[in-house]
Amino acid sequence: MAGLKVWRRIQPCILRDWACSRARSSCVYICLSHGTLIFFCPAFTPDLPFWQKPFFIRAGILPGIGTLLEGAHRPGHFDGVATVVALLLNLTRADRAYFGEKDWQQLQVVRQMVADLRMPVRIVACPSVRAEDGVALSSRNQRLSPDARRRAAAIPQALTAAARAIEGGATPEPVLEDARATLRDAGLGPLDYLELRDALSLAEPRPGEEARLLVAVWLDGVRLIDNVPVRLAS
């Protein structure tokens, strides 16, 4: 279709990282290997970080998806995400933007921002890509030692087992405690959170609704996040 602008994958980069030629080359190489044909690399020299400018998007002023879980453990993080993504969408006028489900809360923050600001773009969720042992693919995995990478498999194992138990009718809280214990026994920690939340609002889930099990845990100094869907019984 003539004039159709589609971003196969949007990966907002922190400005100081994107300015590094190594980070830029790595991103370009990964995109090329997956068939990307067009790159949008605006040239700019930021005089101030966006959080010091007079105007930027605040995603965490009011209680909501921007202040829970990741928002609570990383204050201001989603302000940066929302600002960078809003700038990118405004500059590109993309019709569709693709975000991975691995950063589930980020996906919901972006969806809410697009809806609230009436942006003419459709946010498309892409399923998490996983290694053979179930670990969600992430650039952070490269920072793990071979032993730590092996132990990281406890994350999807714990989430999957918990999701199956809850969908089978088990009471969520004891199941979540078992999942947390599984991570501790595998040598992971500290644990920032492992919670069952409503899939869209990230509030406490209600029976019969789509939910998500979300986790953020440290492993040898590397912070890893993951999530899996859960269908709650009515």
TrEMBL record:
One of its GO terms (cellular component) is cytosol. It comes from the Bacteria. InterPro entries: Pantoate_ligase, Pantoate_ligase_C, Rossmann-like_a/b/a_fold. Its EC number is 6.3.2.1. GO terms for molecular function: ATP binding; pantoate-beta-alanine ligase activity. GO terms for biological process: pantothenate biosynthetic process. It is an enzyme of class 6 (ligase). The keyword Phosphoprotein does not apply. Pathway: Cofactor biosynthesis; (R)-pantothenate biosynthesis; (R)-pantothenate from (R)-pantoate and beta-alanine: step 1/1. Pfam families: Pantoate_ligase. It catalyses: (R)-pantoate + beta-alanine + ATP = (R)-pantothenate + AMP + diphosphate + H(+). Belongs to the pantothenate synthetase family. This is pantoate--beta-alanine ligase (AMP-forming).
